[in-house]
Specification:
single chain; 533 residues; alpha/beta; seven-stranded mixed beta sheet; 19 helices; 22 strands; globular
Length: 533
Amino acid sequence: MDKSVATVITEGKTALGIELGSTRIKGVLTDYEGNVLAVGFHEWENSLVNGIWTYSLEDALNGLSDCYANLKKEVSDKYQVTLKKIGAIGISAMMHGYIALDKDDRQLAPFQTWRNTNTTAAADELTELFNYNIPLRWSVAHLYQRLLDKEEHVEKIVSVFTLAAWIHYKLTGCKVIGIGDGAGMFPIDSEIKDYDQKMADKFDALLSSKGSKLKLREVFPKILVAGDDAGKLTAEGSKLLDKTGELEAGIPLCPPEGDAGTGMTATNSVAPRFGNLSAGTSSFAMVVLEKQLSKVYREIDMVATPSGFPCAMSHANNGTTDLNAWVMMFKEFCDLMGIKADTGELYYKLYNHALTGDKDCGGLLSYGYYSGENITFINEGRPLFARMPDSKFNLANFMRANLYTSLGAVKLGMDILLKDEGVKLEQILGHGGLFKTPGVMQRILSAAINTPVAVMETASEGGAWGIALLAAYLADGKKEGKLEDFLNNRIFKNLKGEVIMATPEEVEGFETFTRHYVAGLEVEKAAIRAMNW
């Protein structure tokens, strides 16, 4: 037993971050230096119900408590202490979406996740009204689409939340949201660090013209920034989190954040000319800007860092889902042949073997579109693998094509920023599960954006670690100054990471693949029209 760590935990000088990702709920307990003390997990998956990608909110709460129970057990097993006190807690989750509640906090409609693309009419109209890109997955697009579709529940709405803000509300009773997550609900004015008032007025007037009495600021949660007091864990919230009743109430919570904000925090990508890319079920790149973009792009979201600085996001709905499915098929083949293949080893060998393939994937092409893809303006998912008769079809090229396509859509958005807008990017940091295999996706990402890519030792900890850092900043870090000072001076001061820059041949290979990818989008659209069985 490490007595010093046990003392830190017993005295409650810790921060807990829990992030509800698309396939896993993960909890990370750290000290105030960001050192990971314990982790907990709960696996879950979305469902396609009546054409809607959704999760049961009951499953979310059960998963939250199961994740915490697993983390608590690890604390007990490793340090022989019971987790009762925590310095601060942070909740994060997938951004965007739509959770609507009535005056009695009853759910009015299915939880619509970021993955849904059934808001085209609303997003188009709002983009024109605001002269500001409103992506299909943003909460305001979901709300307005429900009104356009004349859904009966709309006039009963009292609150609209993202998943993180709703969990936070259940734990604290406070209707608040971190500015990064809030930037995925409605446009943010970075000067006042709040919803853009002119746009809010236009939206309220639009609702009124449709006969609705709803007001944006009345139904959306209040915006907070990193370090703000976001409420305390209530007795009811404590029992939701820890079903044993041993966790003390009264613990402070930091503002709930989205996975984009926690990704920026986890990679210390909060300064201009730096960015990060989170690679998982979805893939999104964030670049902190020196100035605003010259015009509106439907492919680019304008969001905010947890401190409120403007940030451009290239967000692809589809990332690794199709890639993982192919790897699992190889696992099934190994099982069929009686070969004992550890899943982690399988990923490692297949990913590294991909680097031996042709740098343009030998003419192979893949679209991992399990759902619609906003960047390429495709509203339905159709995973598709294609090749020509003279393509070089072998395992290395096959895996390389599937790794490339996990970044295919997000690269198109990055090309707008780097090539069309001339945004300067000195370095980008990669994080998330796709970077667990050392060097592989780091090199491929560098080839995609022709920029050095760093991966820190903490890359695989991801957003759960990021929200734990935001909780630590609330509990003990504000004496360092701004959030970026806390991250630079305390958390990342001694962390090591490797930087990789792709070769010119690798960059050109990815460019060739991208040209094929763009040209083949008509094939993908044809597949959607044809495969409606």
